[in-house]
Amino acid sequence: MPRVAVKIELTDEERAELDKNVKGHKVEKRLYIRSRIILLAAEGKECIEIAEMLGVSEKTCRKWRNRFAEKRLDGIFDLERSGAPDTFTEEERLEIIRLACSQPEEIKNWTLAYLTEAAKERIGHSISIETVRQILKSADRKAVVDPPNQNNMYIKTTPVSANK
């Protein structure tokens, strides 16, 4: 049994917003395509035609047509997603920052590699150099490349904003 397409009728405001999405120069491609799907559906075109014209599947056309019919303009935007949960607790992050602000025992300054190794021992599980760098960045600390030797990085223990 063929699927019956939802009839789309637009208000003047909706049409203006969708036209803006289609004609805008800085509109994401996915928003452009979704807006075109709705505008073509409002002209009475079937999903098979729309899919062929825009190079999308009929399933994609039906999805956005139905979402628009249900939620109107809000329906053409992606749903909020929570993302992956944090791997490290706030206490572990603070411990890494405290460690970076302390004076290392065996070397003059922390390098990201040394700090990462010390952090692994302190928090009790694995952590990557990149994650340590991101934690420091979020705390307004900076991993700085030592200009004379581009291979050495050290941790600046004063906040970056204090140096400006």
Explain how this protein is built.
The mean pLDDT is 81. The chain folds into 2 domains: 12-76; 90-163, Arc Repressor Mutant, subunit A (Orthogonal Bundle). Helices cover 50% and strands 5% of the residues. It is built from 7 helices and 2 strands; from the N terminus they run αααααααββ. It has helices spanning 12-23, 29-42, 47-54, 58-71, 90-101, 112-123, 129-138; strands at residues 142-145, 153-156. The chain has a two-stranded antiparallel sheet. It has 164 residues and is mainly alpha-helical. The protein is rod-shaped. The longest helix has 14 residues, at 29-42. The termini are far apart. This is Mobile element protein. It holds the Pfam family HTH_32.
Offer a quick outline of the entry.
The protein has 164 residues and is mainly alpha-helical. The protein is built from seven helices and two strands; from the N terminus they run αααααααββ.
Give keywords.
Mobile element protein; 2 domains; two-stranded antiparallel sheet; 7 helices; 50% helix; mainly alpha; Arc Repressor Mutant, subunit A; single chain; 164 residues; Homeodomain-like_sf
What are the SSEs and their pairings?
Layout lengths: L11 H12 L5 H14 L4 H8 L3 H14 L18 H12 L10 H12 L5 H10 L3 E4 L7 E4 L8
Antiparallel strand pairs: 1-2
Helix pairs in contact: 1-2, 2-3, 2-4, 3-4, 5-6
